[in-house]
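Human: Here is a favour to ask of a fellow structure person. Comparing notes only helps if you start from a blank page. Give me a protein, with the fold worked out from its sequence. Please set it down just below, with no commentary around it:

Assistant:
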Amino acid sequence: MAQRLGSVDATVPFSESVDQTRVPTPNNFIIESHRPTLFDTPFHHHTSVEVNFLQNCHLDYSFSGQVAKLKANRLVVFWGAAPHKVTDVYGEGRITNIYLSLGQFVRWGLPSDLVKAILSGEVIASRNDDPLDALLINRIYNEKHLEQPPWRRTHLAEIETRLRRLALEGWSTLISSPSRGNGFSVRSTTMQEVESMLRFISENFTLPINVKDIAAASSLSPARAGQVFRDVLTVSIKKHLTRTRLSHARMLLVETEAKVSSVALDSGFASLSAFYEAFTKEHKQSPAEYRRQSQRSNPFLAFHAQP
């Protein structure tokens, strides 16, 4: 039987339980697999989006006092900002946890209904068993030692594609909204502010926007907006804006034949030199080199790139 929780803030201060070990580095992810057990700490939380997959067992998860029942062979997705803990485990199977940075999750440009559900605090799950999910999750876990950038990009692409399929297929909502009356409401306001800034960036990054414009989208001062954004995403507003523009630029470099100068301007960079500086700093190679490497590694693109 699931444990009943009182106020999480009465148990342990929220700010003292932020789990920084569950926040992946840029363009990366964290994956773990183990036999699920009850948490040693009263609860924990982190700023990553978490994807869980149970095999041969199921469990009860408490999110700020609300209980979600996780079934075997179903993908479960939620934003780890809400305090959560395992309260009951049934069976002796395994759980695989994938942690994605919130910035990565947003930069993918997934269907808005799915993004809104996760950022509003919902806990969602795939509706049906899909034998391919176990194959996918197990393969990614078994290949976690392959840390070279091409492998990491491939694994991230596979995770992204599965989430896109989840959005198309529809999902079951295990928890519809964060629990109220337990200290979560203030933090929910902070999440809404960050969500407003993320949405403004995703809709306007190709335009000449700056930190002041982004802060205004959440009705905050630039200083306060920067602090809130960094507290939740562990990255500055300016850095996230640059990464969003670079993500779009990579897509244009690989999927179009546009000149590099056009890619730079179409991705929101003020000048070609600014684009080159940001791109080489992030990827350790020039945009042209990145394009050539991507074409060589993709036979389809290489064929169509021939004169």
Summary: DSSP finds 13 helices and nine strands in the chain. The longest strand covers residues 49-55.
